[in-house]
Design a protein that fits this description.
five-stranded antiparallel β-sheet, 345 residues, alpha+beta, Structural Genomics Hypothetical 15.5 Kd Protein In mrcA-pckA Intergenic Region, Chain A
Length: 345
């Protein structure tokens, strides 16, 4: 990218900056041009600035798709970066339990647990700040009350700490592996065994930051163990109960993919991100599956993984507590279609 750059005289923490479009950059979209001009800023931040009218070409605000011409002047003021501390948002919570020390919630699919790049609002942390007067700060200001996490598209039980003492006690339990976690996963294929243990280390992916990989000999590798049992078998699909002993990032998803039974609609490790009724019938080679459901009806658009049950000791009383979250509607409906077909046969 070759541009002539001029900074305006406006005195601001994020001053308006000017660029003259070169012949090499002629024809580029405005958003792509600005992404190259501000390499340290996220795409979402740049898009937010354009949407707020902070990007002007020849003095006129333009859309992200606007195609630039040589010698045009582009002005842009980079909007402030979002605060890392979650802001209170009136987001509904499915509260399973609450006392003075802890709360237990049923996280819906699609919700990010705490703020991160590209996900500054709509997080569980923002909902917690709105609903509770006190939350632990043990995990830092960006993770109030957050003791452990679930992937964005994984639903289910999650425990929250209201005090630092409760947080520390719960964190010790997770580290000592005394917390018992049970997940339900709808997977592609059917395992050879009814139950087994998958024991394979997990480390950083060699080329893709958003993924993890099974790696036995690498500095980032950590031991990972998952016990599983087959709860139900269908045509080409299974319902699996998974009990991870360790808690590595993407552990269940990676381990089930390793035995050639990736979680259904797991884009990272299964290759498919959505499933319609017609695709289900093709996948299972059974035209009778959900025969009354139109081919185009979407059945699933996220990984079919649900944290069903969590068992731990109360941080103050020491009493063993167990909490269950009901299976979300999308997984319930898919299982209903599969079960109805099995009973009909």
């Amino acid at each position: 990218m070759t541009v002539e750059h001029r900074e305006s005289e406006q005195d601001d923490s994020n001053p308006v900056q000017q660029f003259v479009v070169s012949e090499l950059d002629a024809g580029k979209r405005l958003d792509s041009f600005l992404a190259q001009a501000f390499p340290s800023a996220s795409r979402a931040r740049i898009q937010r600035g354009i949407s707020n009218g902070l990007a002007k070409v020849q003095g006129t605000p333009r859309k992200p798709s606007y195609r630039l011409r040589a010698d045009q002047t582009v002005e842009f003021q980079l909007p402030p970066a979002p605060a890392e501390v979650p802001q209170a948002e009136p987001i509904a919570l499915d509260l399973l339990y609450e006392d003075d020390e802890i709360a237990v919630v049923n996280k819906p699919p699609g919700m990010v647990v705490h703020p991160a790049k590209g996900h500054w609002s709509g997080t569980l942390a923002s909902a917690l700040v709105h609903h509770f007067e006190q939350l632990s700060q043990f995990g830092g200001p960006s993770r109030p009350g957050i003791v452990h996490r679930l992937d964005r598209d994984t639903s289910g039980v999650l425990v929250v700490a209201k005090t630092d003492a409760a947080h520390a006690h719960l964190a010790d339990q997770f580290q000592a592996r005394t917390v018992r976690k049970e997940y339900l996963a709808i997977v592609c294929g059917c395992p050879d065994r009814d139950r087994d243990r998958i024991d394979f280390p997990i480390g950083d992916h060699p080329t893709q930051r958003e993924r993890k990989a099974l790696r036995a000999d690498h500095s980032s590798s950590r031991e990972a163990q998952t016990f599983y049992e087959v709860a139900e078998r269908f045509k080409g699909i299974s319902l699996i109960r998974a009990m991870p002993k360790t808690g590595r990032t993407h552990q269940i998803r990676l381990h089930l993919s390793h035995i050639r039974c990736p979680v259904l609609c797991d884009k990272l490790y299964g290759g498919r991100s959505r499933l319609t009724a017609g695709e289900l019938r093709t996948f299972c080679r059974d035209k009778s599956l959900g025969a009354n459901v139109p081919d185009e009806q979407l059945l699933l658009d996220r990984q079919a993984l649900h944290a069903q049950r969590l068992t731990f000791a109360h941080p103050t009383s020491g009493q063993e507590l167990a909490f269950e979250a009901p299976l979300p509607e999308d997984m319930q409906q898919l299982l209903l279609i599969l079960r109805n077909c099995e009973s009909a046969n």
